[in-house]
């Protein structure tokens, strides 16, 4: 798809394309205000195209190899909802499935796929706590804990003969990502918070708020199901209300 779009843009055969053609194509995305991540993905596809053409002997030169991939801006700090915004979101959510789903995702820091993939058999009561088996990326499983109050709220959700899923669509099937995305957008709009908010922002918020309230980064790594501490450590640097400037005295004299 990307290769075809690129060739249509240049109007040339692959062997006739020069460095300037690639740069003009990338610039066309900048003019359309595409994100750096999007542009980098396009460039990666073109680099792969030229590399393949070189390996097969179709080309002798690779102009794409002359282009360095720019480092994308880390906009994680722009996707962190403040605790007050989380409160507004929960208050604006419709009671029942929507509010319970948002609470659970935020409380445990789940990926949207992990929340939607939950089955009733994934919950196990253990005294005052309830253990939840989470099936994450790479078929990795981790066990997290929710309190009785949230568990009682979850137990009030309707069940279906069609599926063991905890979160259901209005037709009694497992709730899907598209419906969830629309629900979060509409809820954020009613709450008057950042209109770009998504379910994954709740996972980011869980991470930052946990660290802010004293959680250790290694515990957070295990809870989020990250493969390395380096990934989790990003959250140490994105607190929007914390900065070393608080330790700098600008008073004259």
UniProtKB/TrEMBL annotation:
Single GO MF descriptor: DNA binding
GO BP of this protein: DNA integration; DNA recombination
Protein name (Swiss-Prot/TrEMBL): Phage integrase
Organism: Crocosphaera watsonii WH 0003
InterPro entries, per database record: CB, DNA_brk_join_enz, Integrase-like_cat_sf, Integrase_catalytic, Integrase_recombinase_N, Integrase_SAM-like_N, Tyrosine_recombinase_XerCD
Domain Tyr recombinase: 76-248
Tagged with keyword Nucleus: no
Domain of life according to the entry: Bacteria
